[in-house]
Write a structure and sequence with these properties.
With 265 residues, this protein is an all-alpha fold. The protein has helices at residues 8-22, 25-35, 43-54, 58-61, 70-76, 87-95, 101-110, 113-127, 140-148, 151-154, 164-168, 174-177, 188-193, 197-205, 217-228, 234-252. The protein is built from 16 helices and no strands.
């Protein structure tokens, strides 16, 4: 997906770049402000992303949409942040300013999300059962070849996997080629609102946690309340939950079996 423009957001940043050329930035930013902060997900999140990426050059506007946005982080973090999280992508995207936004993003994701997130998960999951995975599409020669193919060819007309699909059609039946994209999602919203409800309070919002040195407990509770109210942004709440579990284990000596109030500081 990173190499062959397989993600939907590649098309999104392509549209955003075209919109940026047609509509003045202040107009786009005003429209986004009128729409209000994204707290729900779904189509509302997609529209917000389009307007955000269209509001400024991609090196300044792109961010990890599954994380907390700047306004939400300002409410959540007690001491602010020394450097905006978006700079991780901004510095890399700035190196590719001569390229179209989608091609710049492709190269940026190969050096960020892919190696620091997805491949790590594959390594952890396979090594846990004594397997070593190989990803054929990450063959070094293939990657080098595809990065020499300009976006106007590899992403012709904004069609995802424009070069890969015709080749796959020689080997795969039509029902597989036309099948909707399916990710590796897990039911974290159902977990958080179900069996992990008490654990969220235990590790994130319960008074006296070491975690509250860095995050505001009320903001963390409000994020969970939004989830209860129908928000689909379970990914952001899950980040808080995993941070809370890490904090309890690393800083307070707790374990899943430690009774409440136990452990050591």
């Amino acid at each position: 997906d990173e190499l062959f423009f397989g993600y939907a957001f590649f098309a999104g940043v392509r549209i955003a770049q075209a919109l940026r050329r047609l509509v003045p930035g202040p107009v786009i930013r005003r429209a986004r402000a009128l729409l209000g902060e994204d707290r729900t997900g779904g189509m509302r999140n997609q529209v917000d992303a389009l307007l955000e990426y269209a509001s400024a050059p991609i090196a300044r506007s792109f961010r990890h949409r599954m994380g907390w946005g700047p306004a939400a982080r300002a409410r959540l973090l007690r001491h602010g942040e020394p450097e905006p999280a978006e700079s991780i992508y901004g510095r890399r995207l700035a190196r590719y300013a001569r390229l179209d936004d989608a091609d710049a993003l492709r190269r940026t994701l190969l050096g960020t999300w892919l190696v620091n997130d997805y491949l790590v998960k594959v390594d952890v999951a396979t090594m846990a059962v004594a397997l070593e995975a190989r990803s054929p599409f990450l063959d070094v020669d293939l990657v080098d070849l595809m990065l020499r193919v300009p976006g106007r060819i590899a992403f012709a007309g904004g069609r995802r996997k424009a070069l890969l699909r015709p080749l796959a059609a020689r080997l795969l039946p039509a029902e597989i080629l036309a099948r909707p994209k399916s990710g590796f999602g897990i039911p974290i919203r159902e977990w958080l609102l179900g069996p992990l409800r008490g654990d969220y309070a235990r590790y994130v919002t319960r008074p006296g946690l070491a975690l509250h040195e860095w995050i505001d407990a009320d903001a963390a509770a409000a994020a969970y309340a939004e989830l209860e109210g129908g928000s689909r942004r379970a990914d952001r709440v899950w980040l808080l939950f995993t941070l809370g579990v890490w904090s309890a284990m690393a800083l307070e000596g707790m374990s899943p079996e430690t009774p409440l109030g136990g452990g050591s500081a």
